[in-house]
Write a structure and sequence with these properties.
The chain has seven helices and 13 strands. By secondary structure, it is an alpha/beta fold. A hairpin with a 6-residue loop joins strand 9 and strand 10. The longest helix has 22 residues.
């Protein structure tokens, strides 16, 4: 990677990332998601219980007006920074995902996170993700098969993949990176098999120069996510699975800020048979729709 590209990436700001994540969410939902899409009974139940939990916390810990005002100021700044998608995806989504996928028999799910972008370029079953000519990092061959629960191959399954680069940045969320860098939609072959050439991503800190970073600093937390690949795997008459795959030995597998790591999602990394970089195999099992 050129020095200029590296310099551009490291100038990524939380505000830009937050704005991008907000725009991506609004695009995904068509700006139509709202309380009117949830029944009044559910809104009443959930809002009442969340507010009651807040009230109980205030009483239990004798929250002061100074602390209350600090909370109000911080909540306002989260909105101004466009960081609600980041905040919710880091600290809340893993529980929503757990509930949504609790009855699955196939591949374990994980969070989508704020950096998914739909409609990545479509690629053949044996493909290399778009990347810069001088992209830095360790080469990785990521391969496997998509089957139904029970083992029947699923021809033409769709494997969407996106990831951070070797500096921990995502295309479309940091300056100086081509639009579809390290993103693609791979179409599996007639046996459901795929082989993807990419690079090993880096662990990274979520943006810390905005409101989420202020919370992290004030609470004395760390901001790190372990290295991971993002996947959405789908096929007709099957349930889409959104997941992440992780690399053994990463120091933040045990204390991921997003609480998204699961032992079933750990990759087995081996030296590549080609002698260049590493390779790993992961097979996906899709539940019926």
């Amino acid at each position: 990677m050129t020095d200029q590209n590296t310099a551009d990436e490291t100038q990524a700001r939380a505000a830009d990332s937050g704005a991008g994540a907000t725009a991506a969410f609004q695009s995904k939902t068509g700006q139509g998601a709202g309380l009117e899409d949830v029944t009044p009974e559910r809104v009443n139940t959930l809002a009442t219980e969340v507010l009651t939990a807040v009230h109980d916390t205030i009483r239990k810990h004798k929250v002061t007006y100074a602390e209350y005002d600090a909370l109000k100021a911080w909540l306002i700044s989260v909105g101004e920074d466009g960081e609600w998608p980041l905040f919710l995806d880091v600290w809340v989504e893993h529980v929503v995902e757990e509930v949504a996928n609790e009855d699955r028999e196939g591949t374990k799910g994980s969070i989508e996170g704020p950096y998914y972008v739909p409609n990545a370029p479509e690629l053949a079953a044996d493909a290399t993700l778009p990347m810069r000519e001088d992209e830095s990092g360790t080469a990785l061959t990521f391969q496997g098969q998509v089957t139904a629960v029970g083992g029947a191959p699923i021809p033409g399954a769709k494997v969407e993949i996106w990831q951070a680069d070797a500096q921990g940045f995502y295309s479309q969320y940091a300056p100086g990176i081509p639009e579809w860098n390290l993103r693609g939609t791979v179409i599996a072959d007639e046996q459901g098999r795929y082989q993807i050439g990419t690079l090993q991503p880096a662990p990274y800190q979520i943006p810390t120069d905005g409101s989420c970073g202020k919370l992290i600093a004030a609470a004395g937390w760390h901001a790190w996510r372990p290295a991971h690949l993002h996947l959405k795997v789908s096929a007709p008459e099957c349930q889409l699975i959104t997941t992440q795959l992780y690399f053994p030995g990463d120091p933040h597998n045990e204390d991921d800020i997003a609480s998204a790591v699961k032992p079933e999602l750990m990759l087995d990394i081996q030296p590549a048979e080609s002698g260049e970089g590493n390779q790993t195999t992961y097979n996906f099992e899709l539940d019926p729709a």
